[in-house]
Amino acid sequence: MYLGDWLSRWAEIDPEREALIDGATGRAWTWAQLDSRASRLAGALASRFGVGRGDRVALIANNAPEVFEVLFACARIGAVFVPFNWRLAVPELVDIARDCTPTVMVYDDAWAGAADVVMSEARIKGGVTFGATGRPGVLAYEAAIEAYAPAATVQVALEDLAMILYTSGTTGLPKGVMLSWQQIVFNSVNTTLACDLTVNDRCLAFLPLFHTGGINCLATPLFHRGGSVVVMPRFDAAEALAIMERYGVTITVAVPVMYQMLMDAGLATRELPRLSTLLCGGAPCPHSLIEQYLELGYNFRQGYGLTEVGPNCFSLHPSDVRRKIGSVGRPIFHSAARVVLDDGTEAAADVIGELWLRGPHVTLGYWNKPEATAAVLDAEGWFHTGDYVKRDAAGYFQIAGRKKDMFISGGENVYPAEVENALAAHPGVAEVCVLGVPDARWGEVGLAVIVPRPEVTIAMDDAALKQWMRERLAPYKVPKHWRLVDELPKNSSGKVVKAAVKQRFFDA
Question: What is the CATH number of domain 406-505?
Answer without folding.
Answer: 3.30.300.30
